[in-house]
């Protein structure tokens, strides 16, 4: 009897081919709509950020200047910025690693039904979607305030809170990856006398590695720019880049410096997202484009 999960298997002994949908005369309409969306959602906001960061914080705001790089000079020379950048990178990497590891375990157990409580574990990881980020942050603050653990006021409490927030998304990504891989590949490895850990490392991991990479980059990008959790759990020792932007904008009212802080964060996020989408492209897609051009 074929299980319901096996109908989604695409990595097996059979090949498959994806079809290309041709838009025909709607090409220009779709292209214009996409271009308008990119202009409103990305180009204009980024342009305004760069423009405002080049103006003096206390001079009269005009479209023609005068322009200055004082905000960027302060950004480069500030030891506080170097400290929060280090905290932010540490939080982003640790959160992404923790989330991807947990997502792999939960997704594999759920996709293969290895234990009785795998479905419960999958559902439990999904509960994080029902809690707003500020609720997660406040609850973590109260928990570690009273627990005899030296985590309150450190970067690790932010890592745990962000892992709880982003775990459901990573589990969905990895569940889709494991469902598409036939379980017979693992069974064949076990039949050959290979252990479970080596099977997962040598057989399964290479097949689901693209999904792991995408989940890691996705979590990392969201963790370094998350402001809600960082602001609630912030202290003098664990301040993050996003929290610094918020305090500069709302407390110092230094809009030029706040905009200058936003520009590097936006550039890094865009570059990582572009790399993730570029690596996502399948060689089959490129062969189709080359064939159409011929």
In short:
The chain is mainly alpha-helical.
CA-CA gap between termini: 46 Å
Class by alpha and beta content: mainly alpha
Low-confidence stretches: 1-7, 12-16, 282-294
Let me know the average pLDDT.
Answer: 80
Total helical elements: 12
Radius of gyration over C-alpha positions, nearest whole angstrom: 24 Å
**Approximate strand percentage:** under 5%
Q: Name the helicity range.
A: over 70%
Largest sheet: none
Which term fits the overall shape? Answer: globular
Number of strands: 0
H/E order of the elements?
Answer: HHHHHHHHHHHH
Structural description of this entry:
The chain is mainly α and 294 residues long. The protein has 12 helices and no strands. α7 (184-191) packs across α8 (196-225) and α10 (241-252) runs antiparallel to α11 (255-280). Mean pLDDT is 80; it is low at 1-7, 12-16 and 282-294.
């Amino acid at each position: 009897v074929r299980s319901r999960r096996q109908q989604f298997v695409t990595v097996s002994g059979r090949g498959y081919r994806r079809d290309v949908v041709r838009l025909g005369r709607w090409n220009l309409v779709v292209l214009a709509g996409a271009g308008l969306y990119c202009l409103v959602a990305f180009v204009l906001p980024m342009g305004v950020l760069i423009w405002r960061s080049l103006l003096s914080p206390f001079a009269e705001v005009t479209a023609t200047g005068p322009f200055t790089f004082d905000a960027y000079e302060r950004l480069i020379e500030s030891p506080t910025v170097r400290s929060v950048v280090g905290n932010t990178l540490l939080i982003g990497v640790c959160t992404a690693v923790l989330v991807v590891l947990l997502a792999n375990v939960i997704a594999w157990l759920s996709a293969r039904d290895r234990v009785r409580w795998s479905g419960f574990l999958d559902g439990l990881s999904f509960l994080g979607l029902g809690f707003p980020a500020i609720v997660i942050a406040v609850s973590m603050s109260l928990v570690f305030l009273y627990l005899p653990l030296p985590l309150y006021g450190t970067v690790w409490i932010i890592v745990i809170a962000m892992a709880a927030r982003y775990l459901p998304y990573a589990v969905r990504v990895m569940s889709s990856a494991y469902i598409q891989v036939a379980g017979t590949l693992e069974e064949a490895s076990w039949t050959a006398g290979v252990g479970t850990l080596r099977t997962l490392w040598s057989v399964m991991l290479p097949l689901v590695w693209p999904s792991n990479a995408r989940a890691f980059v996705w979590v990392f990008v969201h963790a370094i720019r998350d402001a809600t959790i960082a602001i609630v759990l912030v202290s003098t020792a664990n301040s993050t880049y996003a929290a610094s932007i918020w305090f500069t904008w709302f407390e110092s009212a230094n809009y030029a410096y706040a905009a200058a802080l936003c520009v590097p964060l936006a550039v890094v996020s865009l570059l990582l997202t572009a790399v993730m989408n570029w690596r996502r492209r399948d060689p089959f897609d490129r062969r189709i484009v080359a064939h159409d051009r011929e």
